[in-house]
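The methods section describes the discrete structure representation at length, but only in general terms. What matters is that the chain and its backbone geometry are given together, residue for residue. Nothing conveys this as quickly as seeing an actual entry. For illustration, here is how one protein appears when written out as sequence plus structure tokens:
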Amino acid sequence: MNDQIQPDGSAEYEHGALGDAEYAAFMELAAEEGFDAEEVEGAIDAAGHGPLPVLAVVGRPNVGKSTLVNRIIGRREAVVEDKPGVTRDRVTYEAEWAGRRFKVVDTGGWEQDVLGIDASVAAQAEYAIEAADAVVFVVDAKVGATDTDEAVVRLLRKAGKPVVLCANKVDGPSGEADASYLWSLGLGEPHPVSALHGRGTGDMLDAVLEALPEAPEQSFGTAVGGPRRIALIGRPNVGKSSLLNKVAGEERVVVNELAGTTRDPVDELIELGGVTWKFVDTAGIRKRVHLQQGADYYASLRTAAAVEKAEVAVVLIDAAESISVQDQRIVTMAVEAGRALVLAFNKWDTLDEERRYYLEREIETELGQVAWAPRVNVSARTGRHMEKLVPAIETALAGWETRVPTGRLNAFLGELVAAHPHPVRGGKQPRILFGTQAGTKPPRFVLFASGFIEAGYRRFIERRLREEFGFEGTPIHISVRVREKRGTKKK
């Protein structure tokens, strides 16, 4: 069966993808198991949404951006502290409003005295331009528009992205007069909001939904035959720029023993094996975002944006050093972004037999969660094993785009459940009834079950999916829809 891949690069679950007869059979199976058509299609749509539109929350320090982000996502995740410049480990969260899902990027405060106000504002606005489909610009209504706010406005206006103006810290009707003064910024209607108390956030989010596209502008997969995007990521001074220069066959980017030479992602079109690839050399990610300041903070944000725009993340790890928590965090960044993954262990030529032995043990324990990722042992300095990089990338891309026909998937699930049923919990044994693949890039599955499926059993299913169908080099997303109890259901 040839599944249809949509022009935007996602494999949407539609009648045409299955064929009318198979779709009818699938929906008949769902009905027999107690699922109505709307429930099934809703679950598939939610699981197979593909890339979500991105909303960036920007503004100068201490205007309440993180408080607003917490309000939007409906939980306290972004770190909030009553002083400017507090940032956090994760800057991207998933949110939902009025039935629509989107990503929220909390850009945090910046250190104005590190690079100077103009450079700092430019870096903040640059990331908003890079990553967002729309922007919420947060201004402190009590303080009013400052020179910094005016600078942000000028840069956001150049970006051409839709902007929703949030006049924060309006705790009551008396503060709305302060908000009205922000019309002077020229960004349209200021939405008076109290992020702390929730006042006015609903109206502001309605405006956000009008500004956000239904689906984000695709950053890959749109141009037939266009170059595939590869992001090189890793800790500072691990050899990313050296690797890029080696595969390019010339000095494309600056290489220096001083860690952190690269600040901005650099796109390079490079021909390897008769194929043109677009490599992005990113700034090294030094440490947790909330411990970073100034230029390092923006380097991390731009690296995250580069990963979001890439199809494959090649994580470079210094084989001569122990695998660090930071290496693991960078791998997790790529996995959570849903990108195909290749692990490249650099400086392999410097290892003796003892170090190689201990490195293998470290890989098993510290990177066991991504044992599915292709691995290459290279030397960016000498060029050793560089020829293995492209096959590893191609393998990861193939896994990332793999689609399993629904009939074959359900035959597999039936055999799996019969041989290895879910453990009994509370006197009940939940069963996986049927499933389908809702999308690709990365592969996303939705399983329909009679009861709650434990995380351990979901991991078991993922392992068996990989054993059966491959999926080398790609994360897999599995969601479960539990059959609702229906009191009127016939016995």
User: Anything to note?
Assistant: The two ends are 37 Å apart (CA to CA).
